[in-house]
Amino acid sequence: MIRLFKSLLSGLLTLLAVSFLTFVLMKLVPGGPFDGDKALPPEIIAQLEAKFRLNLPWYEQYFGYIQNLVLNGDFGPSIKQIGRSVGEIIAQSLPVSLELGFYAITLSVLVGVTLGVTAAIHRGRWPDFTAMIVAISGISLPSFLVAALAILVFARYLGILPAALWDGPEHRIMPAIVLGLRPAAILARLTRSSVLEVLHLDYVRTARSKGLPPRTVLYVHVLRNAFIPVLTVLGPMTATVLTGSFIIEYVFSIPGLANHFIQGVTNRDYPLIMGVTLLYATFLVAANMTVDLLYGVIDPRMKETVKA
Amino acid sequence: MNSLKSFSVPVRLAVAYVGLILLLALLAPWLAPYGFDLQDVGKTYAPPSAQHWFGTDALGRDLLSRLLYGSRVSMMIALVTASVSVLVGTVLGTIAGYAGGWIDKALMRFIDILYTLPSLIVLILVMLVFGRNMTGILIAMVATGWLGTARLMRAQVASYKHRPFVEAASALGLSAPRIVLRHILPNCVAPLIVELSYQIPTNILAEAFLSFLGVGIPPPFPSWGILAEEGWRSLRIYPHLTIFPGILIFLTMLSFNVIGDALRDRLDPFLRGR
Fold first, then answer.
1. DSSP letter for each residue of B146-185
2. ipTM of this predicted complex?
3. Which of B50, B206, B221, B267 is the most exposed place for a label (fewest CB within 10 A)?
4. Residues of B with CB below 8 A from A251's CB?
5. How many cross-chain Cβ pairs, A to B, lie less than 8 Å apart?
């Protein structure tokens, strides 16, 4: 209980520091939201700046923002998307990014772990070589190249999948596979080395010499321990996949968070930049905390060390 | 032990490929059949031919020439930014590991916080703060790239700090910088080389990402990322403009990753002999 409280507190402090860093960095970017194409009269700019509190010193703007966020749970109004709040924009685009990320992560865990385990139990033979060639290619492939090839083959030449947008289930297939490819490759490599490490341990030899079937040894004895390092990267990886969608959302014209972030940066829409960044950071903190808590479930030894 | 012949064929191919790309990048001004910004409006979107091996782009510029010059830009960015990242990470990680105490705690906490910021967001913001130029891209990539090396070096240095040979050097009255530079760091060269060989492909990809999202170094200066982004606009009709730069990025990253794996397996005593 105390442990949970401590990690929650440390997570909140981290988020506070992240919000401060992002705010300072964002304010350092030259230009402002109102120096767009047509020059506005100075009095209108002054009025707009007063409306969005941009006329205050930067630290007052920051504290005002945090206050509003903590007390009212309000991300503030979008400066450029007139009449919309950042909360609304997030509520609309977050489900899209989450859905895409969920498919990609599920796919990469299924494919990555299967490839990794297969490679490890056939070490040095062709399934191992094939899986590892696939994996190292997977981490070296820029996602836009995979996206380009997929669009050309499945949308342009075969015409069986849509090239862009996010309407029906058929729109989910290509982006999810392209986004999941790299994490799948990373997981495959990690799972392989992790399983190999565990396969050498004494208790596995004991299990085998007891005459247990190889299948039981693998599923009951080996995989459970081999999953610990995999679990460790899964936390940050989930968050990376969510932001890895930057390119994917861009090339497939998917109306998700990343597209709004890029728009926000281009327009210097400060509340939008802050909102999206904090959301991503919250995901990362939450993912890491979940992993920490899961350690205790998957590996009772960890619980003991923490207690002691 | 480190002679090239002791490595497997794929590793030797990867080394040869990286060498070739570096050579092409160095000699680009002499090898390129046309200037990188020479336009020929009568010959836009030409398919690959004897005159233009890789075809031409929307402004009739020769893609082969632009790819050669692009290798120069992309490889320089990747090599310089990766080296500086590893250097900064080494210095800060070593300080944290050797000093210990509150310096160590503060630095590690700072790194934890930075890890919570998605690197792509930091890349974009820092790039815009310092401008879309070489300085901007260097600072942006170092700001996101030093974290891993710093953690690694902190652990390395801390593990050596209490070894007998370091304590002996300390008992002889050697100064801390001397102990670190002469006795500890030489033992950490191997993991640093591995770290560098993985940082390079990461930065090649990061440069392409930035260019693709329109916040990389500005055109008409060619880089692989810029070329891919320019090609993307006409993907359906002229796919070769995206595919060629994409394949170049892929092969280069693949080679560096293969080399990195080989070095890690060779240098990591836990994996040796497996």
1. HHHHHHHHHHHHHHHHTSHHHHHHHHTT--HHHIIIIIIG
2. 0.85
3. B50
4. 232
5. 113
At residue B272, does pLDDT exceed 50? Answer: no
Residues 6+ apart with CB under 8 A from A45: A34
User: Where do the domains of chain B lie, and which CATH numbers do they carry?
Assistant: 23-28+60-267 (1.10.3720.10)
Most confident of the ranges A287-301, B36-50, B112-126: B112-126
Phi, psi at A123, each rounded to 5°: -50, 135
- Give exposure, B223-253, as e/b (b: 16+ Cβ within 10 Å): bbbbbbbbbbeebeebbbbbbbbbebbbebb
Percent of chain B with pLDDT over 70: 96
**Percentage helix, strand, coil for chain B under 3-state DSSP, each rounded to 5:** 75, 0, 25
Q: Does A204 touch chain B (CB under 8 A)?
A: no
CA neighbor of B231 nearest in space, from B57, B74, B39: B57
Q: Does the global pTM surpass 0.90? A: no
Is the separation of the CB atoms in A298 and A235 below 8 Å? Answer: no
- Rounded to whole angstroms, the Cα distance separating A153 from A172 reads 16
pLDDT digit string, tens, across residues B53-73: 788 877 778 888 888 988 999
Residue B96 predicted with pLDDT over 90: yes
pLDDT in tens, B151-160: 999 999 988 9
The pair of structure tokens assigned to A126 is 């062709």
Per-residue tokens: A127: 């399934």
- Residue A243's pLDDT band (cuts 50, 70, 90): low
Fold of A89-256+280-307: MetI-like fold (1.10.3720)
Nearest to A258 by CA among A237, A275, A233, A282: A275
Domain chopping of chain A, boundaries: 89-256+280-307
Residue A57 dihedral angles phi and psi, to the nearest 5°? -60, 150
Cβ atoms within 10 Å, residue B105: 11
Provide the 10 A C-beta neighbour count for residue B104.
Answer: 17
The Cα–Cα gap between B131 and A158 comes to 43
A165 and A171 in contact (C-beta within 8 Å)? yes
Q: Which residues of B touch A (CB under 8 A)?
A: 112-122, 124-126, 128-129, 201, 205, 208-209, 212-213, 215, 228, 232, 235-236, 239, 242-243, 246-247, 249-250, 253-254, 257-258, 261, 274
Asked if A245 and A255 touch (Cβ cutoff 8 Å), the reply is no
Helix axis angle for B63-99 and B189-212, nearest 10°, is 130
- Backbone φ, ψ for residue A218 (5° rounding): -65, -55
Give A98-120 as a DSSP string: HHHHHHHHHHHHHHHHHHHHHHH
Residue of B125, B139, B147 best to disrupt the A interface, most CBs of A under 10 A: B125
Convert the pLDDT of each residue in A131-179 to its tens digit. 999 999 999 999 889 999 998 888 888 878 887 778 878 888 899 999 9
